[in-house]
Design goal:
3 helices, alpha+beta, flat, AGC (cAMP-dependent, cGMP-dependent and protein kinase C) kinase family protein, 2 domains, 3-stranded antiparallel sheet, Phosphorylase Kinase, domain 1, 3 strands, nucleotide-binding, single chain
């Protein structure tokens, strides 16, 4: 390998590394910005409820129960947001379509019973046909 080629390869590698670093930094910043926004919105909802209760004729014991109920719902919502959806959460009903990269299935969510269409893609097929980006896949 010649000196010019080696230097060019290092610049390309360095450039790719810098792109990955920038993408990771952006992801982390967005994640924490969203976390702070969620915390602020949660505080705001509690504050609104407390103000409404303070200006109402609701007994103190009932006010405490309503605030605890809000906290319980907020906690459950946060738990649901953290849950990653996976194929095991669904029951396959039937295949409703096939394509070059996979198939579309009609599925029922096990928890709610709602019906959804789920696209199942073959990553190997997409890679062989050059349909995935070189970053992250």
């Amino acid at each position: 390998m010649e000196e010019g080629e080696k230097g060019e390869e290092e610049v390309l590698g360095s450039s790719l590394t810098m792109e990955k670093v920038a993408a990771a930094k952006q992801f982390i910043e967005n994640h924490y910005r969203a976390q702070m926004k969620n915390i602020q919105e949660r505080k705001e909802r509690r504050w609104v409820l407390e103000r409404k209760l303070a200006s109402s004729d609701v007994p103190k014991e009932e006010q405490i129960n309503l605030i605890k109920d809000l906290e319980r719902k907020e906690t459950e919502f946060m738990r649901l947001k953290r849950h990653k959806i996976c194929v095991d959460d669904f029951e396959l009903l039937t295949i409703i379509g096939r394509g070059a990269f996979g198939e579309v299935r009609l599925c029922r969510e096990k928890k709610s019973g709602n019906i959804y269409a789920m696209k199942k893609l073959k990553k190997s097929e997409m890679l062989s046909r050059g349909q995935l980006s070189r970053y992250g896949h």
